[in-house]
Design goal:
Length: about 150
């Protein structure tokens, strides 16, 4: 396994764990809208790397989209300060550290092996997760009676 896969694998595992935490505590309207937006902000640069030929111009667009994503994912912190327990705060902190590393790893994969299967499958995985988030948090999730 390539070392560059590690940030992607860790982020995926922690996102699944974090999703379990969200299912237990529920999400308010802000997070139900914001979390799919976060996923979309990751999907865009990852898709650029998966589907565009590596070039200086495409790399600059990828870096800009990645930077926007890194800033965008912090938007929920004022809600998290009220809603999250210590465990969830820790998971989010690790995800914040991994977030830019995922883009760096993706950029290196794109540069060194643009036909890499992991690079090609990431948009599919992220797209499915995006639609899951929209469907589950908009239509399927029912608040837990307290």
């Amino acid at each position: 396994m390539k070392l560059l896969y590690l940030p992607l694998l860790l982020q995926g595992m922690l996102m699944i764990y974090d999703e379990g935490i969200h299912r237990r505590r529920g999400l308010g309207a802000w997070e139900r809208m914001g979390h799919p937006l976060d996923t979309l902000s990751v999907f865009i640069p990852i898709s650029l790397a998966a589907f565009l030929e590596f070039s200086e111009t495409h790399l600059q667009i990828f870096i800009a989209a990645s930077a926007v994503s890194c800033v965008l994912v912090t938007k929920d912190e004022f809600v998290h300060a009220r809603e999250c327990d210590a465990r969830e705060h820790w998971v989010h902190a690790v995800l914040f550290v991994l977030h830019p590393l995922v883009f760096v790893a993706t950029g290196f994969l794109w540069w060194t092996d643009p036909t890499d299967i992991v690079l090609a499958t990431q948009p599919v995985v992220l797209g499915l997760f995006f639609f899951y988030q929209i469907i589950f948090w908009s239509y399927l999730w029912k608040p837990i009676a307290r």
